[in-house]
Amino acid sequence: MNINFFFFSQCEFRVCVFIFNFFAANLSSITTGLCLGWTSAAESKMKDLTQSPLSSIPSTEEFSWISSLTPLGALVGPYIAGPLTSRIGRKWTLLASSVFFIASFIILIFTNTVAFVFVARILQGLGVGFVMTAQTMYVGEIASDECRGALGSFMQLGIVIGILYVYCVGPYVSFQSYQCYCLIIPIAFVATFFFMPDSPHYYIQKGQEENAVKSLKFLRGKSTEGVQQELDEIRATVEESMKNKATFRDVFANAANKKAFIISAGLLTFQQLSGINVVLFYCQSIFETAGSSLKPAIATIIVGAVMVFSSGLTPVIVDRLGRKVILLFSAAGMTLSLALLGLFFLLDHNKSPIAESIKWLPIVSLIAFVFVYCVGFGPLPWAVLGEMFAPNIKPVASSMATSVCWIFGFIVTKWFSSLQDVIGSYGAFWLFGVFCAVAFVFTLTLVMETKGLSLQEIQDRLNGRK
């Protein structure tokens, strides 16, 4: 009895260690969320000289760069992070992201010019690019086949927790204190994740089989014999994929890689064309423009809380319903929400008395939008990216797909204000709604279901083998 009790306690301890490892990795996602939501509160502070550390109020053009430089940095980051994941590992590439985050918040604490804000936002973007590239690979490779979708979708949950964090803190503290609160998270990430193992796939790739065994034992809470079958499968997958060293050209060299890239890059493109970064970066401003019946800061916190709640649903349902069904639901819901939001801005633009009676509609529409986005098109494109490619092609393909994502993220964020000037707020949100409708068709016709499939089985399906 004492032996059984000891064995149970040891297993329970190992499960707790795996959970700790996983959530330590997701602190990098929370830091990403800080950077994505940072502008919402910071913009209002920089517009008020009594709160701003800057000597003058930034112009509209400068604000557009402050918002868009993070996506621009995130565009460049994957091309540095992708090769690093093969050279130094997924773990150390993730840890390297914290260098950019920590440096950026320290710069913002002491900044007094817009130029230094620009530098800090670029550094944040580089960190985001590192996280988006390395974490999808790391989580996709440490997770078992049964829960890979659920664990992959936790990255989005971490991001929205970070967004909610800055939505709650930002409006109520000084500009410098805001940066200090943000700085806590990447420091905590380094302090916890430093002691975690790298992916067993990476160790096999580097010929470090002993480390691969230790990593699997740590992650699964099993003995050497208990992880042997999975180790053999990983070895076979890695050895097959490593026969040819991958280059950028290899992403399009065969039908399987080409199809995987089209699916992954397509989902990430539509993720950005939904206008999500506009909502995240300008959330408080949108409510101020709409003349919402709630205080903009409170309405923004409500939106952030809904994002956390809905992101928490995805890990529960994704391996039951599958990726494709949830993505279709998400695209349809975003289309409808953006149509209603555009309708309100049209009525408000035309000074319709109806707009005065439906001041609640922007809040309801944005809550509905972020709910369906965070259930589907927020987390699942990244989960799909982490499982679509063979290990040898994954660093290159992930870098390319992530960069495609942030190219569109930069375009949408940088020129949203100009788009509003040309077609109005209502036209801009309706355009995002059209992109979401196209995303529905794309998902329905091209995206394959990966629920319950091993990484090798996914490669077999992409290659047309049953």
From TrEMBL:
Main location: membrane
InterPro entries according to UniProt: MFS_dom (IPR020846), MFS_ERD6/Tret1-like (IPR044775), MFS_sugar_transport-like (IPR005828), MFS_trans_sf (IPR036259), MFS_Trehalose_Transporter (IPR050549), Sugar/inositol_transpt (IPR003663), Sugar_transporter_CS (IPR005829)
Record-level GO cellular component terms: plasma membrane
Cellular compartments annotated: Cell membrane
Ranges of residues in domain Major facilitator superfamily (MFS) profile: 17-451
Membrane topology classification: Multi-pass membrane protein
Entry keyword Transport: yes
GO MF: sugar transmembrane transporter activity; trehalose transmembrane transporter activity
Domain of life the protein comes from: Eukaryota
Keyword terms of this UniProt record: Cell membrane, Glycoprotein, Membrane, Sugar transport, Transmembrane, Transmembrane helix, Transport
Segments passing through the bilayer: 12-39, 63-80, 92-110, 151-172, 178-196, 260-282, 297-318, 325-347, 359-384, 396-416, 428-448
SUPFAM superfamilies named in the record: MFS general substrate transporter
PROSITE patterns xrefs: MFS (PS50850), SUGAR_TRANSPORT_2 (PS00217)
Family recorded in the similarity comment: Belongs to the major facilitator superfamily. Sugar transporter (TC 2.A.1.1) family. Trehalose transporter subfamily.
Protein name in UniProt: Facilitated trehalose transporter Tret1
Native source species: Chironomus riparius
